[in-house]
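Annual report, structural modelling task.

Input specification for the zinc ion complex:
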Amino acid sequence: MSKKRKVLLVFLCVFLLLVVPAGVAIFFLMPKFQVREFIEQEQVEYQEAMEYQAGDICYGNMFGCQDVEVTRVGEVDTGVLGCYQVTYVYSYQGKQLELKQAVEVVDTTPPTLTVSDNEIAYCPNGSIPNVTVNATDNYDGDLTNKIEKRFEGSEIVFEVTDSQHNTATVRKPAIQKDEEGPVITLNGDQEVYVLVHERYVELGASAVDNCDGDLTSEIVTSGEVNIDKEGEYTITYSVKDKSGNETTLTRKVYVYHKNVEVTPNGKSIYLTFDDGPSKYTSELLDVLAKYNVKATFFVTDQNLTKSYDDVIKRAYNEGHSIGLHTSSHSYSVYSSVDAYFNDLYAIQDKVKRITGYTSMLIRFPGGSSNTISKSYDNGTHIMSKLTQEVEKRGFKYVDWNVVSGDAGEVNTTAEVVSNVINALGNNNTYVVLQHDIKDFSVDAVESIIEFGLSHGYTFRAYTMSSPTVHHRVNN
Ligand code: ZN
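The model returned the following structure:
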């Protein structure tokens, strides 16, 4: 072996035996950041709480590794879909390591799809009525109008896909069925009142079917109204859907005369109005005049009535009865017989001054059956005395037997109308109590008159010769 080769061999041995192991040892023993666990790419569901993953990083070597400080740069908003980058900075005694993490906020949740029925009935034309479907999505919100339906064999498949391509599917068994008739809706009222010789206008109806949609043009209308002949007429509206389901609806048309006073046998209604007159009384007189109905006004001289003397005059001139309801309408009139008559004569004088007529017709405040008088009469049973005393002095008092409710809890025109017409039957004498200081009650009068005239009643003014209607005296 040459000397030159020997040197080379020694050098190689030294290199292999000393330098390489030393280098390897230095490599493993030199402290540095050790990345034991780190996720570089992550997905988070929309609107879920973000949990930042800083991984498991330490500083050291194979013999020991120290905890490091970690700070994060960058935020992930899980309320907004998209890609975010988060940087983690690890520090140990002035040394730093940066690692980047990609986070994607995704929506992988399908919409919630609900279908109301377990078995779906569908129409012969394939439409699906009466089924309630709903779709809501965590990201897109309400998707109900995006629901698609299709037939698959004997099933109906409901499907909805959100904007992130997540699909919800519901399958339901389906049968063809149409047993529901169209729904008819009348234009105008179900009961119509027309004065004889006036005009009846047929307003028609509309019809909608669950399967066939608008069937208004298919409605068959039958029945005639003879506007020149008093009576009750029926108009019938019929319509069939394509499956043969038929619906029928009727309208009653009452043709009636204006009020005619005939011999007082038969069903009579006495409309009586207490506490007025008021600003509503002249419009009430207009309605009464329109139907030739005479009524009875038990007037007062309270503050609210003071400027309506001309209305009392008009009512009297138009043939209505003017009765006396006391001047003050204060229950203190029940403190004594004298107190009552002083007050009564005051209103009697006033009516005489306005009309020239001495009214002897009265209605007690609260009616003859009132018990409020007990609070004023010191136990003298004033109502028992007054009911006798007024008759001794030639007066006639009248109570009522139909309560409109307008002085109590009732405060709508519709309730007043129904209270009154529901109280009417086959008796001969109905005395209705209303108050012409209440606009909703005055507004009820026209409907009450139309009902009464078309159902065979005659309206009358209450007079001294009208049938007695008295309550039981309770004090
Ligand atoms: Zn009253």
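The mean pLDDT is 93.
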